[in-house]
TrEMBL record:
<keyword id="KW-0378">Hydrolase</keyword>
<dbReference type="InterPro" id="IPR001279">
    <property type="entry name" value="Metallo-B-lactamas"/>
</dbReference>
<dbReference type="GO" id="GO:0016787">
    <property type="term" value="F:hydrolase activity"/>
</dbReference>
<feature type="domain" description="Metallo-beta-lactamase">
    <location>
        <begin position="58"/>
        <end position="260"/>
    </location>
</feature>
<dbReference type="InterPro" id="IPR036866">
    <property type="entry name" value="RibonucZ/Hydroxyglut_hydro"/>
</dbReference>
<dbReference type="InterPro" id="IPR052533">
    <property type="entry name" value="WalJ/YycJ-like"/>
</dbReference>
<dbReference type="Pfam" id="PF12706">
    <property type="entry name" value="Lactamase_B_2"/>
</dbReference>
<protein>
    <submittedName>
        <fullName>MBL fold metallo-hydrolase</fullName>
    </submittedName>
</protein>
Length: 309
């Protein structure tokens, strides 16, 4: 057990003891952590919906619906799972307007070829990313649209921004719909100035919180892979995400989906604990300034509390 995990265990135990003293709770079974009440990869703002159909190193896909415009960002899970995910929102593959790809890593494009086969939607990405896809999507070259600075698609505007990651030319995306702003920034080694500008004043932010640095350093990954993840071309740690959230400019309550969490080098509890701790040290109130949700790898979980999350 790492030091962070140990601290978390101690914290959970002390909360449990306090509750027991107050006679108001049953302790979780031995060795079991309490449920994290904020699991779920969905957020809404006005008539915009963001749902992480899947998030993590085994596959990523975000469904975004603003008014009548429906897009996917990344198609890293099977087309069947995408279809199932959309169905939960009463949407079918044929209703999608486009798919936007962040970069060519398999966990972001594994389902792309089948998605293109089953639909006639365009695929927007950088020229460098498209060239790297090779056989994965080559036969659909006619559907490729090289990303301009801004894409106008029905009721939304989509603006890509560069991110630092070990891929050909990776990007994140900001979506504007009326005065609503949604930003997706995952698979990034650090928070660059471009990312800061893109994410500022978002209503919904999908932000990577990939690993706990101590868990990663003490975990099963080979040294070279650890270094790759920790580098400026790797992935964002819980702490880096938290420190960014503590200083990001807000226009009101920002709904944040913590995404692309490592299954080996992180836990939902640790991720949430780190972000909450850093935010409160920075004077931000969780639930008042920033609403936190954890996106997860296997399927989206819909919120039960009135849906306005
Ligand atoms: Zn990824
Ligand atoms: Zn990647």
């Amino acid at each position: 057990m790492t030091e962070s995990e140990l601290r978390l265990e101690q914290l959970a135990a002390s909360i449990g003891r306090a509750r027991q003293r107050a006679g108001c709770a049953v302790l979780p079974a031995e060795g079991q952590r309490e449920d994290i009440p904020v699991m779920g990869g969905e957020a809404r703002h006005r008539d915009c919906l963001v749902s992480m159909l899947a998030s993590g190193s085994k596959g990523n896909a975000a469904f975004i619906r603003c008014g009548h415009t429906k897009i996917l960002i990344d198609a890293g899970i099977s087309c069947r799972r995408i279809e199932k995910g959309l169905k939960a929102y009463g949407c079918s593959l044929s209703e999608l307007d486009a798919v936007f790809i962040t970069h060519e890593h398999a966990d972001h494009v594994n389902g792309l070829a089948t998605l293109l086969k089953k639909t006639d939607i365009p695929v927007y990405t950088t020229r460098e990313t498209w060239s790297c896809l090779g056989r994965k999507a080559g036969e659909y070259a006619g559907r490729f649209v090289r990303l301009p600075r801004r894409v106008g698609l029905k009721e939304i505007q989509i603006v890509p921004f560069l991110i630092s990651h070990d891929a050909a030319r990776p990007v994140g995306y900001t979506i504007y719909h009326g005065d609503s702003k949604i930003t997706l920034a995952t698979d990034l080694g650090y928070i660059s100035h471009d990312v800061e500008l893109a994410a500022a004043y978002s209503d919904i932010l999908i932000l990577e919180a990939n690993h706990d640095e101590e868990m990663l350093k003490n975990g099963p990954y080979p040294y070279a892979l650890q270094n790759r993840i920790l580098s400026r071309w790797g992935h964002l740690s819980n702490r880096d995400a938290a420190e960014f959230l503590a200083r990001i400019p807000l226009k009101g309550l920002m709904k944040v989906l913590l995404a692309h969490r490592s299954e080996k080098n992180n836990t939902p509890a640790l991720s949430l604990h780190t972000v909450r701790t850093v935010l409160s040290r920075g004077g931000r109130v969780v639930g008042q300034d920033i609403l936190l949700r954890l996106a997860c790898q296997n399927g989206h979980v819909r919120f039960q509390e009135g849906g306005n999350a």
